[in-house]
Amino acid sequence: CNSPCSSPFQLAALERQVFDFLGYQWAPILANFLHIIIVILGLFGTIQYRPRYIVVYAIWTAVWVTWNIFIICFYLEVGGLSKDSELLTFNISRHQSWWSENGPGCVRKEASMSGIKGLDSHSYVSVIGCALEYRYIEVMHSSFQILIALVGFVYACYVVSVFTEEEDSFDFIGGFDPFPLYHVNEKPTNLLFKQTYL
């Protein structure tokens, strides 16, 4: 593992982004996009020995953990949150998690709603036989993201400490000495001009 954001971190973020896109979950899509950008920034910082970028990644992991705790609370309906609300879609659509209709063992049935005025073109979708309720799948996804973020945070702190130690122990040629060994006597510029005219 060369960085706090190696391939498992990228694959987990991309996998999460794909399923949020399939479910039209706009708030998680934006959060995942930011996460992917910061992961790439952390990778760049590690490869290019830029501790500041890695510190940004470490700070972002705290935000990412907080976001995933919110997602867990949202799907478990903690503190007045409701998994059926349109909060994650910014009230733009009534979509839910992709897993709500496509989870393991789920069978999707559509029934037309022609008897209700104004809804002739719509259909009622019922999902039965799910082996695992979709909210628990989302909770597992977020829990996995938290675990990866914590590992990334620890590794980022380690990499920053290694870079900082290397910078502190690096011996510049006479950089820290009050009287450097390679001291060049420079003549004042007015003496140089006098010599050229002589």
From TrEMBL:
<feature type="transmembrane region" description="Helical">
    <location>
        <begin position="144"/>
        <end position="163"/>
    </location>
</feature>
<keyword id="KW-0472">Membrane</keyword>
<keyword id="KW-1003">Cell membrane</keyword>
<protein>
    <recommendedName>
        <fullName>Sodium/potassium-transporting ATPase subunit beta-1-interacting protein</fullName>
    </recommendedName>
</protein>
<keyword id="KW-1133">Transmembrane helix</keyword>
<feature type="transmembrane region" description="Helical">
    <location>
        <begin position="54"/>
        <end position="78"/>
    </location>
</feature>
<keyword id="KW-0812">Transmembrane</keyword>
<feature type="transmembrane region" description="Helical">
    <location>
        <begin position="26"/>
        <end position="47"/>
    </location>
</feature>
<dbReference type="GO" id="GO:0005886">
    <property type="term" value="C:plasma membrane"/>
</dbReference>
<dbReference type="InterPro" id="IPR008516">
    <property type="entry name" value="Na/K-Atpase_Interacting"/>
</dbReference>
<dbReference type="GO" id="GO:0002028">
    <property type="term" value="P:regulation of sodium ion transport"/>
</dbReference>
<comment type="similarity">
    <text>Belongs to the NKAIN family.</text>
</comment>
<dbReference type="Pfam" id="PF05640">
    <property type="entry name" value="NKAIN"/>
</dbReference>
